[in-house]
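Could someone model aspartic acid with this protein?
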Amino acid sequence: MTTAIVVHGGAGAWGEVPERLTRAMPACIAAAQAGQAILLAGGSALDAVETAVNILENEPVLDAGRGSYPNANGEIEMDALIMDGSDLNLGAVAAVTRVQNPISLARKVLEHPNHNFLVGAGAEAFADQIGFPRCEVADLLTDENLLHYHNHKNTTANEAHGDTVGAVAIDSNGNIATATSTGGTRHKLPGRVGDSPLVGSGGYADNWTAAVSATGHGEALMKIIISKRVCDLVGDGLSAQAACDAAIQMLAERVQGTGGLIAVDARGQVGVARNTNAMPYAYAIDDKPIVSGK
Ligand code: ASP
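Reply:
Sure, complex below.
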């Protein structure tokens, strides 16, 4: 059975500071390599996407975990979603602070017997209750983001994109999974939640069709439930690539949105699409060398 992992580092405004893209690429490659190693050792797609996203969350140039963009109050609120395509179980958190790896907290929510989505203070109380590692805001806020925040303090939230991270994978048992993690958009209002933690929007995974992770203008992506749409198009017979292309076209035409998608279908075929100026990505199929691009 083919194994595959695809990761992305967000369809953000990469053109503004090209040097940041140069820093993001090695993190994407490292994340794909780590996921590939798990899959080749017989590990699960769920473990592969969580580990890959942990690596991306830990890279300060990317808008997730350390490196998350501050909101309008200079605080950090992060969102994450992880989904298991074998039974459609999912875990999501939104507006969480002082957590280095929100995707792993989302994984703990996935493992909860009764709940799927926890937000804000409740999600953090849950973290403390289960002994999940906490950190300080200073551990998440980079000097670069702090400087940007202070220089643009009085501007409104006009930067629609972050550099959200995500991963999708299929394992040797044919199980597929997705994970998406973000600090959200710059200068967002406190309490604002984008598409990333919303099932079907920021990600979707179903063994019957595909796993998808989305990035871009959250307020547009959520309107067309873009990740579920890609899965449905794969169910209709499109390849992962054709489905991603069609969904991005619909994003532009129906809601004038911009963003990017990665997908892997139940046959291990990969799709990558965007209508922004860049989106760093990397993928690995079976034991083949990593393919990367932007
Ligand atoms: N989709 C994310 C959000 O709206 C941002 C991004 O992917 O760049 O929070």
